[in-house]
Amino acid sequence: MKFKAQQIADILEGTVDGDPNIEVHKLSKIEEGSAGSLSFLSNPKYNSYLYSTKASAVIVNQDFQAENEVSSTLIRVKDSYKAFSKLLEFYQAAKLNKNGIEQPSFIHDSASHLDGFYLGAFSYIAENVKIGKNVKIFSNVHISENVSIGDNCVIYSGAKIMSESIIGNQVIINSGCVIGADGFGFSPNEDGSYSKVPQIGNVIIEDNVDIGALTTIDRATLGSTVIRKGVKLDNQIQVAHNVEIGENTVIASQTGIAGSSKIGKNCRIGGQVGIAGHLTIGDNVGIQAQSGIGKNIKSGSNIQGSPAFEYGDWNRSYVNFKNLPKLEKRITQLEKNHA
Predict the structure, then answer these.
(1) The CATH number of the domain covering residues in 117-242
(2) What is the mean pLDDT of each run of 10 residues along the chain (339 residues)?
(3) Is residue 241 among the annotated active site residues?
(4) Catalytic residue among 108, 113, 241, 278
(5) Which CATH class is domain 3-95?
């Protein structure tokens, strides 16, 4: 898609300083700008790039004063950073403005969808699937039977949504996600082998949830695995059966949450955190990266370590951890002196 500088200025409620008819068709960082690209300048640290960039147009603050000659067309706005963010949203919406059903693809006769629907090639929609308005499903997506998907959802290529899953409104599911696969349930036998415990529950994902690429959310044994509204999950996270994640909690990549643990609202969980099963983590909890959680955590806690404990205590203890070899030598010397 191509846009003229004046069209962009109109979208951003700005003004053009230069050629209003110059066209751009891609976005770039200012230091990597090339002909046909649009960039922005908000941090004074990057001012020097404005005089060397090849970008056709650059978004700047209204009060910006150039110290040297600028070859790019300038689009002056009140706040260049916010304006560029708004433009990214506009660009993303334009990219997602797809409609229709590509072939080859399959939709069961009993499935339904509302206006604004897009289905990419090689996707499969099983029986009794219900899809809301303005849902965009990209290529190679598999949606099993009895799934419900709300309005304005985006499901990227290669995602799998298994049977009985319920997806709310404004949910983004990135490539390679698996929603509603069997939970990890086995019972030991007397001979040391294991028997599979059927996982007959489902997954419920509420509104405004973002799920990163290759993240897996397992169906419940009974009942539901629940991701509450506003939750943001990074790439490559494992959410086991019957887990519940509270509203607006954010979890970074490679974290694993074992079965039946409950995480509260507004928590911030770093990467590679391991959370054992059947635990309760309160609201507003911060867990630092690579922590191991083996017990219940009270609301408002900020913890680190493996096994994890209070963040401040961990930092003070870490000073001693680093000094243990020196302390051991001092103790040994003191014992010799007093022998």
Answers:
(1) 2.160.10.10
(2) 91 94 94 94 93 96 92 95 88 85 97 97 98 97 98 97 98 98 93 95 98 98 97 98 98 97 98 97 97 96 86 82 83 82
(3) yes
(4) 241
(5) alpha beta
